[in-house]
Amino acid sequence: MISVQASKGVARRRIVLLGGPGSGKGTAAAWLAKRLEVPHLSTGDMIRAEVSAGTALGREAAGHLAVGRLAPDDLVLRLVAERLRKGNRDGFVFDGFPRTVAQAEGFDRLLRERATLLDRALHLEISQTSVEARIIGRIGCSGCGKVYHATHLPPREPGVCDACGGALEKRADDRLDVLRARWRIYNSGGPRLVEFYRRQGKLAEIAADVAPERLYAAVWEACAA
Ligand SMILES: [Zn+2]
């Protein structure tokens, strides 16, 4: 059970979420931001907003995205600085930022300039193997689209949809390549970032290979503690 307290009673309201692809950090960040009543900030969304607004920053970012590169640290930090200027210094949940130690150091500087600081870095811990196993086991109904999993959520009768009786088929392999590419990118900076926050004493390790309810409870606890 998740103990529900008023968000005002929670001291930790400036949070970043770390974790590899498939760790569920986007969903957890959205959940946490809602509960804390603070904005859920994703640099991916911020970049897309700048691009569609046609700002100078957006045009610069679009140039990198067009060739499949991640936006460079200084550009990401300028976006974040812009966002902090508009408010948000008293609370936020970031996911997908920071991505590198350089971004984390820059973020600390930006927060200090605004006389505030990061409260917690939550690391949603899950191995690439577990994430792959979840995807590999996924089966979907060709009739109604309902999704099952060979081990976590099997249909009552193998190969047959519980809901509509349609044929179930494996879905996966295309997504697996994409996932592996994203893990390669994550591994180039993610683990060092976790170490960075561990040294600062701000890291909370959270086992992410669990049911959503348990994950949310652990996330909440890490902010309340
Ligand atoms: Zn079905």
Describe the protein in words.
The protein is of the alpha/beta class and 225 residues long. It has one domain (7-128, 189-224): P-loop containing nucleotide triphosphate hydrolases (Rossmann fold, 3-Layer(aba) Sandwich), CATH 3.40.50.300. Helices cover 48% and strands 15% of the residues. The chain is built from eight helices and eight strands, in the order E-H-E-H-H-H-E-H-E-H-E-E-E-H-E-H. The strands form two sheets. The chain has a five-stranded parallel β-sheet with strand order 2-3-1-4-8, sandwiched between helices. It has a three-stranded antiparallel β-sheet with strand order 6-5-7. Helix 2 (43-53) crosses helix 3 and helix 6 runs antiparallel to helix 7 (173-199). The radius of gyration is 19 Å and the shape is globular. Bound molecules: zinc ion. Zinc ion binds next to loops.
The CATH superfamily label reads P-loop containing nucleotide triphosphate hydrolases
Radius of gyration equals 19 Å
The distinct bound ligands, ions and cofactors come out as: zinc ion
What is the count of structural domains?
Answer: 1
The general outline is: globular
What's the CATH class, please?
Answer: Alpha Beta
Number of strands: 8
Order of SSEs = EHEHHHEHEHEEEHEH
Biggest sheet architecture: 5 strands, parallel
Judged by helices, strands and strand pairing, the structural class is alpha/beta
Total count of helical runs of at least 4 residues: 8
Separation of the first and last Cα atoms: 17 Å
Strand content: 15-25%
CATH topology: Rossmann fold
Q: Please mark out the parts with pLDDT under 50 across 5 or more consecutive residues, or reply none.
A: 1-7
